[in-house]
Amino acid sequence: RSCCEKAVGWTKSAWTKRFKKIYLYKVNLYNDNESFIKIGITGNKNIKKRLLCIAYKYKILKVINKNTEYIYNLEKRFNRIFKQYKYKPLKQFSGQNECFKLKDIWI
Description:
Elements: H1 12-18, E1 21-30, E2 35-42, H2 47-51, E3 57-67, H3 68-81, E4 99-100
Antiparallel strand pairs: 1-2, 1-3, 2-4
């Protein structure tokens, strides 16, 4: 599976069948025109490899590695908590629905 293949819409069951542990990451994505936060999950411990497929500069702010069910639930919880701050990036990419317009998110 390449870093650009989509895992968007995977169920908790699909994640837990494939991985014992996954990574929740918080990154600041930016360019000359915009800056925003993305919260996502990946099975790849090399978060930079996941971000290669996104046409933005980035700064990794936080990475949490725990069991798959915990991380999956945590990401869903963050998406609910920060729903009012949802941001649609100008450039499309896999995972663009997990972006937020905030100065900082404490996790």
